[in-house]
Amino acid sequence: MVTVALAALWFVPAACGPGTDSDVVRSGQHEGSAPSVSSEPAAATPAADSSSRERVVFLGTSLTAGYGLDDETLRFTDRIQGKVDSAGLPFEIVNAGVSGDTSAGGFRRVGWLLRAPVRVIVIELGANDGLRGLSVDAMRGNLQAVMDSARARYPEVRLVLAGMEAPPNLGSGYVSEFRTAFAELARKNDAVLIPFLLDGVAGDSELNQVDGIHPTAEGHRRVSETVWSVLEPVLRDVVGTREPEP
Known about the structure:
five-stranded parallel beta sheet; 8 helices
């Protein structure tokens, strides 16, 4: 089932949005400047929050952005906000998903997102790198740069990395290297790994839109469960390690 879905990804890359990134790895010293207003979803804009909630930023692609959904409140990130609120956890979920973004594009804008405090960053990047058959080494370098930037700005930030799969028609060697890159990065950076963001969703026609790539509302609900199973323990651990207020 997953193989069928990933093969479809390769033949309809335009469905993931326009993306113009060259995917050249750049130094962590050269963080991207603020993008134009039209290139960022409103929810991603850093803003002062007078409450005690800490920010959990989802840096991602069209999968995070909720491409194709009629109601953005049905995105998996919005569902996770509901779970956070129901659990009484003091966090604000920030959706920083941009359709067509690659790992290089995510790195270019992470500096802008880090202008406001971030307690947890969930990195959902790489799907479009795989769709285009881009260098796994370049993707690995870009993802490392994102994590380095986050830790340089906020040493106590918690990192969560969402794993993805490459289309099988790119060859077993590429597919294996692509998959392994996420696990290796997670181990190297003490990040929590979501093995496969679309686990149980990819390849199921009832859980994907007509393009066969982007989840339906029900698909997003399934994704939210996958992400929450990994994210909830992280958030509870953050709360448990807070210093008590005087």
